[in-house]
Amino acid sequence: MTKYKKFLKFIYTVCGAFGFIAYFSYLIKLFVWPEGTLPLIVAILGIIISGVPVLFRKWFEKHLPKRLFSFLENLFGWGMLFYCVTFIALSSFIFSAPALQAEVEELPEKTVFIVYGAGLEGDKPGSILRKRLDKTVECMTELPDSVCIVTGGQGSDEPVTEASAMKEYLTENGIDGDRIILEERAHNTIENIRYSFELIEKEKLGGYAVVSVSNSFHIPRIDLICSRLGVESRFILAKDPNPYTLFTVLVREYMSYAKLFLVGTEA
Questions:
Q1: Distance between CA atoms of 48 and 40, rounded to whole angstroms?
Q2: Which of 226, 152, 229 is nearest to 185 (CA)?
Q3: Which pLDDT tens digit goes with each residue over 130-167?
Q4: Quick count: other Cβ atoms within 10 Å of Cβ 104?
Q5: What is the pTM of this model?
Q6: Strand ranges (DSSP E) for 117-208?
Q7: 188, 263 in Cβ contact below 8 A?
Q8: Burial group, residue 137, by CB count within 10 angstroms (0-12, 13-18, 19+)
């Protein structure tokens, strides 16, 4: 076996296995915290595309014409290597988020916090969303003249809008309801930003500093979309989830960035 063949077999197996583990982990996460039908379909397709060639490699080598197998082997091996390299590069970019962090002490008294929705557990905020809301409570307590926009519509599997669940959580944790503005139409980060800035204009909050509150894995994408939309925001980072959940979120973030760059929208 030539060195090239050995290298190809290595990346075919290792990178394919990584893809399989990534999408299988994401699928498990979807059973615990559903995100709708499309993510479920994508996760299953990811498992099939990355897993079947690895698990049945010997069968394909034995039963397919030699030239066809060689072509498919190269296509899959190099394709999965591209996925792994870009996944690592994106993860490195995402973990640069702390460099964007603003300190609460530096913010003016008149600040409007944009709090981004995430999944609900029943009609209550899920674990990731609670971390964003807890950070918002902390910031708004320190800045008593600040207000916030809670942004998030109602998912197909959610009994209420994310924004209404977020407002209820904030009021239960001591934030006056008059300081909370609801944005209940958005279903992705682009809409979160666009509709929130529309509310900032409508509510005549133009003189307020704008600060986005989310987890570190989400902040770089918010920053990128803000740049594309021509709006400005500073950032406050909430705590990240546990390592397993963070890994599955990175899998989803990869898909969101891919869709954002390819078609201008996101997952």
A1: 13
A2: 152
A3: 999 999 999 999 999 999 999 999 877 778 899 999 99
A4: 16
A5: 0.81
A6: 120-121, 124-125, 147-151, 180-183
A7: no
A8: middle
